[in-house]
């Protein structure tokens, strides 16, 4: 009888159940949808921002998925309810990083006031995705700082204001030469110039290779006149492969690296007759190709993506025998 009195007493029942694991009734549909997603995972049916990497979790099966997805959607009321029923071991520094990655400043503030842990990943992601307000807040209030990925990510994505902020606010934080390499690849000329004039890390020869391959003539010219790393045959090969003939001519006139024999195959593939004399100047044994040879070359050339140390370069060519 006494147990029945407890069950019918709303105050006592709420007090007892407050210490039990569980979820609120209104959250059940989200858990049901998550289970269905696990049974029939399809990246095509998911918004791009709800992929595991963008939620800062390892996989769809991660128990933090629903909470991190609510953060990404900026569903503040849902986040607050989930925080009440999530186990503490599931509320990690990745939650702060998820809010920072999506630029939700109000959630970053809430999490900070709640004492939710933070890591350098939060600043790295805020910088990479261009969220200056979040980055500034974390710089002031979070002691974990950032890694070299912050500057590299911001430079790669073209966030000049963030590159400048990191340089000024965190001068003790080293970065990598990849910052200029990736800025050159993506055509962010102002960032290339800023890094050149203000940072000591410099670039690698890959910077000019990238810029040439992706058609950024101004950057190629700047790197040639202002820096000493030079380039490799990948620069002219990539420029030919993508049809950037002005860059091919510039490299031929001002650089000595030349090209590989693949460049001639690229030219034949795309019928770039105007630059064949330039390419033959590096490989004298290669004669002008007849139309039959050109047809055969196009038929036998198979292009496939590769991942080499020159990440994000182009494609490799495999010529059948």
UniProtKB/TrEMBL annotation:
Q: Which domain of life is it from?
A: Eukaryota
Short name of any one Pfam family annotated for the protein: Ank_4
What range does the record give for the signal peptide?
A: 1-18
The UniProt keywords, alphabetically, are:
Signal
What's the protein name? Uncharacterized protein
């Amino acid at each position: 009888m006494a147990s029945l009195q407890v069950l019918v007493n709303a105050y006592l029942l709420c007090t007892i159940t407050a210490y039990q694991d569980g979820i609120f009734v209104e959250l059940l549909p989200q858990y049901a949808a998550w289970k269905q997603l696990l049974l029939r995972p399809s990246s095509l049916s998911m918004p791009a921002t709800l992929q595991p990497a963008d939620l800062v979790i390892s996989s769809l099966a991660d128990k933090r998925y629903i909470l991190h997805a609510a953060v990404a959607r900026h569903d503040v009321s849902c986040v607050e309810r989930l925080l009440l029923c999530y186990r503490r071991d599931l509320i990690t520094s990745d939650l702060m990083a998820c809010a920072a990655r999506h630029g939700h400043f109000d959630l970053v503030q809430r999490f900070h006031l709640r004492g939710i842990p933070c890591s350098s990943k939060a600043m790295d992601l805020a910088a990479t995705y261009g969220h200056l307000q979040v980055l500034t807040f974390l710089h002031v209030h979070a002691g974990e700082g950032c890694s070299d990925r912050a500057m590299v990510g911001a430079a790669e994505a073209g966030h000049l204001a963030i590159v400048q902020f990191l340089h000024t606010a965190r001068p003790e934080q080293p970065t990598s030469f990849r910052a200029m390499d990736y800025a050159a690849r993506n055509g962010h000329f102002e960032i290339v110039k800023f890094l050149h004039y203000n940072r000591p890390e410099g670039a690698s020869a890959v910077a000019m290779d990238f810029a040439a391959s992706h058609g950024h003539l101004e950057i190629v010219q700047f790197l040639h006149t202002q820096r000493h790393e030079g380039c490799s045959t990948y620069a002219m090969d990539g420029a030919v492969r993508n049809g950037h003939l002005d860059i091919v001519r510039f490299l031929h006139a001002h650089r000595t690296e030349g090209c590989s024999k693949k460049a001639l195959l690229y030219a034949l593939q795309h019928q770039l007759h105007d630059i064949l004399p330039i390419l033959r100047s590096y490989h004298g044994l290669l004669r002008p190709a007849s139309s039959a040879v050109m047809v055969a070359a196009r038929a036998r050339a198979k292009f496939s993506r590769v991942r080499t140390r020159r990440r994000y370069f182009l494609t490799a060519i495999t010529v059948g025998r």
